[in-house]
Amino acid sequence: MASMHTTYTASGSFTLTDEKGVVVFSYNPSFTAETNTTAHALYGGEHLVQTGNSQLECGSDINVDRVYAFLKHVDTDYAITVLPDTGQNVEISHLKPGEFFFAPVDLNADGSGTSLRVTAATADQKLQYLICDALDN
Amino acid sequence: MPQNYTFSASTNVSATSTTGYSQSASGNFSLNITGVDQVATGRLDVAHDGDATIMAAAGYGRAIYVRNLDDTNFVTIYNGASSGADPIAVLEPGEFCFTVLRSTTTTVAKADTATVTVEYFALEIDTNA
Q: From the CA of B77, how many Å to the nearest CA of chain A?
């Protein structure tokens, strides 16, 4: 039986500067996840997010308890909200044009989710994404 | 304290299969923020038997970063009080998350099994950001 092994790396840089030019904080985190020897999928692409809910469907064979999700708003007009596809009704991100979200996400917190729900305000908006199976916690 | 700030964020991610197939993505943006009332940053011990507040309810929204500094246990970040159904992120040791939330809820963290230390910032943003 074939298996799929994936390696995932992430790095970031976050800086806050005040009006006097003083750096309030600066963080430069990075990690390389332990190789996932039971991975089932890594997805990437671009999606036209609808105003009435769109699904970034990951499928039930992915580890729905934890996926690395990177989402970037690449349009110019209206915000996009992001929620796991569960009974959850609290957004995990609210992206204006140009902004991004990154997290290892539990799609299945209520036991039924296999996707991310994304919704555009007012009119359809484009979103780019990379989603990869993560090791279970 | 000063009321006007510039926040800059960038992230690169890459996923590679042993077949050689690889995908990567990156993003960067800046926010000009006025009227900031809350900037919280540093390190925080997060217990497994109760919620640790990353940022109390903001007036409009906030940018949140959390990194798990523990060697063993994971930590879960929530939008609102912790419950089984509303996590933002589940962070294994060394992992981090970043999100922007435009809501007035509290952001909390809760560890699994034992107390962990997290590195974090929580930056209140206004309606213009």
A: 10
